[in-house]
Amino acid sequence: MGLFDRGVQMLLTTVGAFAAFSLMTIAVGTDYWLYSRGVCKTKSVSENETSKKNEEVMTHSGLWRTCCLEGNFKGLCKQIDHFPEDADYEADTAEYFLRAVRASSIFPILSVILLFMGGLCIAASEFYKTRHNIILSAGIFFVSAGLSNIIGIIVYISANAGDPSKSDSKKNSYSYGWSFYF
């Protein structure tokens, strides 16, 4: 039984497809894409109390929420508000469109769906005598999932890099987490 036997190739492809789907699903669902220093805000009655509680602490964030790792709010997570009401952008500008693309996180989700469809094609190819078209479809799904994943990573990195014209010290104070590398 060699490495180039049809059965071994199908087994390795199926295991690889399952592993890729599992890792991508875990990555999309977890909050460890980015470690950075940030402010964990809370709503309070007095302004003095708010400024006391708004200390800059280490946070980790994903596609959906941000969590505090230290300070008074350790373990506290809040949903990411991609469209804050007090933001200074207009709804018909290109910036609004970029915020919508970043907020939707469509590319990682699309990648998970395409990986699942490719895995289904590989599984279905075991039951048909003419498998070439089904395996070709699986290959197209897998390549499309990879491209979607790359686009999603580029959009995520550009969203975190921010505006290059602004000279923030925050640009250099972040690192990517294990979910990002999945």
UniProtKB/TrEMBL annotation:
Keyword Membrane among UniProt keywords: yes
Its localization reads: Membrane
UniProt keyword list = Calcium, Calcium channel, Calcium transport, Ion channel, Ion transport, Membrane, Phosphoprotein, Transmembrane, Transmembrane helix, Transport, Voltage-gated channel
Q: Which GO terms describe its cellular component?
A: AMPA glutamate receptor complex; postsynaptic density membrane
Keyword Repressor found: no
- Report the transmembrane regions from the record: 12-34, 106-128, 134-157
**To which protein family does this belong?**
Belongs to the PMP-22/EMP/MP20 family. CACNG subfamily.
* Record protein name field: Voltage-dependent calcium channel gamma-2 subunit
Species this protein is from: Neovison vison
Starting at the broadest rank, the lineage of the source organism is:
Eukaryota, Metazoa, Chordata, Craniata, Vertebrata
